[in-house]
Amino acid sequence: MEHSHLIKPLLDGVYPTIAYGKGVYLFDTNEKDYIDGSSGAVTASIGHGVPEIIEALYEQAKRISFVYRAQFTSEPAELLAKKLSEITKGDVNWAFFVNSGSEATETAMKIAIQHWQEQGIYTKNKIISRWISYHGITLGALSMSGHVGRRERFVPLLEDFPSVSAPYCYRCPYNDTYPSCNLLCALELEREIKRIGKKYIAAFIAEPIIGAAGGAIDPPRGYYEKIKEICEKNDVLFIADEVMTGIGRTGKMLAMENWNVAPDIVALGKGMTAGYTPMAATLVSDKVMAPILKGSKIIMSGHTYSANPQSAAVSLAVISYIEKKDLLKQAEQIGDYLRTQLLTLAKDYPMIGDVRGKGLLLGIEFVEDQQQKRPFPKQFKVTTLIIQKCMEKGLLVYPANSGDEGVGGDAIIISPPLVITKKEVDELIIRLKSALTEVNKELNQIKSD
Ligand code: PMP
């Protein structure tokens, strides 16, 4: 047989071929069904094959699919920028459209630096991020990412940006407990700004809930309030990377609403178009835009496909679907139900060490010993084994591991489409149970070998 010419994630991996999708289910060309328990890469937030979205895509395609943004603006792009300003709290009233989450965070970084340059401040060029974190795969975005696995090959090419510890209570970087810790992990930001010198720091970037690098790690109460206070005090912009959390995933349009904290810049992606077409955005506050509007009046970034009218029409249709179906409330309610089911599962499966997250962005961390929180040895490749077994049982889950053994462990994200019903959650749990039972068996086998 002729070999495949497609470069897949694992070159020697075997992947089923997708045939079609409907709601929370995907079907391969052998008619095997899968529950999309991760919405792909936390993307397909309204489920697959929604007629309204396909209709919107088709209607726009009939008018115009592509224009170059330096030659034309378009109705869908204008309407989407307005809509995003309306549905987000705070003053992130400007939208710069790009095509991927990596471009959105990298643009956020550039806009933050430009914001200071326009005021004659040329030293504020560094971005502080968190170790662990994930902000994207391009070199700028990767420079801001605390993800060993994705960085190590390219470290010499990356900017040497500073970082602070993640608010990872399950494995507290200070071996402390909340609330007596007094939020040391947030205070570390102030110390790092002092260490580097605030005149060199343009911004601090954080995923509201740490996704790909850690498995839905949500911070303790008061963390973001403290972070925002430290940023303001030190003239450091606060960038919220909402690529994974934005547009409803946690039960709010922006996850930062969970803590009532207003970012200066927001990166969006994934859920913006729910995967129907590629599109992402960098939302910019009036405050950040002000010196740029007074100064050069140009954002020095952009891509051929930026502000693509077809994708903008899709995003508008997705947001309107979320509003019409009240999916924010649904994410919260069904998220609570799913979390309860996962916590119940933890009683029967001691390998479940932690269940965390918000809304329908939930994470499970797996451990060899529940009491001691001892991680599995790396060579057991537990995350890979879980993903494989789930897939065999017809359940898709998302691996979340930074590759830094010293910080995190084996974790997965469970983030089904926001439209998932209780009955479908029950089916998801049945499949997960069945996969974990087999994982247990295999691990016992490995240990006894
Ligand atoms: N930021 C976050 C928080 C993400 O989760 C991701 C993707 N996992 C990215 C940025 C990068 O997005 P993309 O893969 O679309 O470039």
TrEMBL record:
It comes from the Bacteria. Keywords: Aminotransferase, Pyridoxal phosphate, Transferase. Transmembrane segments: none annotated. Pfam families: Aminotran_3. Gene3D superfamilies: Aspartate Aminotransferase, domain 1 (3.90.1150.10), Type I PLP-dependent aspartate aminotransferase-like (Major domain) (3.40.640.10). GO terms for molecular function: pyridoxal phosphate binding; transaminase activity. NCBIfam families: PRK06917.1. Belongs to the class-III pyridoxal-phosphate-dependent aminotransferase family. This is Aspartate aminotransferase family protein. It comes from Anaerobacillus alkalidiazotrophicus. The lineage of its organism: Bacteria, Bacillati, Bacillota, Bacilli, Bacillales.
